[in-house]
Structures
1.
Amino acid sequence: MTGRGTSGTGTPGLSTARVAASAPEPRSGIAPGLLADVRTRLGTGPAGPPDDAAVAAALRASGRVLGSDALVDLTRAARAELTGAGPLQPLLEGPGVTDVLVNGPDDVWVDRGDGLRRSDVRLPDADAVRALAVRMAAVAGARLDDASPVVDARLPDGTRLHAAVEPVAPAGAVIALRVLRQAVLDLPTLVAGGAVPPDWEALLTGLVRGRANLLVTGGTGTGKTTLLAALLGVVPPDERLLTVEEARELAPVHPHVVALAARRPNVEGVGEVTLTDLVRGALRMRPDRIVLGECRGAEVRELLLALNTGHDGGMATVHANAAEHVPARLEALAALAGMPRPAVAAQAAAALDVVLHLRRRAGARYLAQVAAVRLADTGELEVHPAATWDGPGSGGPRAEDGWQSMVRRWSAC
Ligand SMILES: Nc1ncnc2c1ncn2[C@@H]1O[C@H](COP(=O)(O)OP(=O)(O)O)[C@@H](O)[C@H]1O
Ligand SMILES: [Mg+2]
């Protein structure tokens, strides 16, 4: 032990998040003494998070709550402290919030979709940050302590939790929360917000409706998952979507989504369910479309196989810093599955129709290129640009060779 905090036992100071007087953010407004009392009454057993009724009963039993209005408010506040993200909960519930990051007690950041901004929320001290991280990990059913100092888990409401404590975070515990929200950025919103040129909207809709097999590419944080979710929102409602992801991120606005998420092996090294397993499994679950949230390993083989055997309308994202890197990237991933290069080229060219490549410049994320996937005369896999855009404020996109035929083929769909 390093002496920094105690794992899992007390939760010192969780309730005492200080919020600067000028802060616009709400605070939980529950007295630390009352919260401690409620915590004691609820017991410290390993049972799942207490529900509203249990919290309300504990509050009532404390004899310090008068009036049913106060009880409702306090129940909500107490539950946030006891089971949710404590002092971070109001930030997570704020409109448009995508990420909440805690680097230290006085170093809390929030992204409301327009970049990271420092928040006024403070935690009492470094021990409180660690205790909060440990408690959220426990709520997510995971362990976080000196022996297992990094956690990647999901809170009951779908929020993704990443946290690290000493010894891997020597300056003190750090927490990163990513909110799972229904895709707020639908295709028209992406167009209106300048992420997609208006000229391309009809083509994108046509590609989805026409069941093109699409690969969304770009660097980290360029908006691949966001665009993918928006495209899924265009899929006709009578189609059944099977999404496969490492950890659930996609929450498209669509009435028929079956989400599968991979599982890591447990500490004994058993119980792993890989993306490859899930793509295979998804194919047997009567999908109208297979969606692979992020393709980053050997599962590319199953994806290409599926798309080449009648499962059209499939979509996936792949990390690539430029559209012309996509062939090499696919070959590298497929090599992990033992596929030789010429086989990857042939399969990918047959399976994939269009690459949608995203870029990020000066904080703006935008669709920079629409490209066709094909097999060159040399037998190499080729991603051939059909239109290119330099982003918001740069004027319209430039059509390249092949744009007209792409539009003719897909726009009318
Ligand atoms: N067009 C956009 N406008 C505003 N925020 C966006 C846009 N696209 C993505 N984001 C935000 O940027 C972050 C990263 O996006 P994400 O789609 O997860 O990227 P990737 O999948 O490429 O890593 C998310 O918080 C997301 O909400
Ligand atoms: Mg992503």
2.
Amino acid sequence: MPKLELKVEGMACSHCKRAVEEALKTLEGVTSVEADLDSGKVYVFYEGDEMDLNSLKEAVKSAGYEVVE
Ligand SMILES: [Cu+2]
């Protein structure tokens, strides 16, 4: 399964982690999301040809966090 790796700023606790994961999971094509609080890395697993990076960024932003990479 294809995977994208994002670096997200602002996640401080398990609530942040869940907020980011849930926001990304609502996107079309996304099958699962795993956020790591320590590193700020968020792994997005998806199906289909390509995932639109901008919609991922928007979803993270609307949850109140920022994709920095
Ligand atoms: Cu938090």
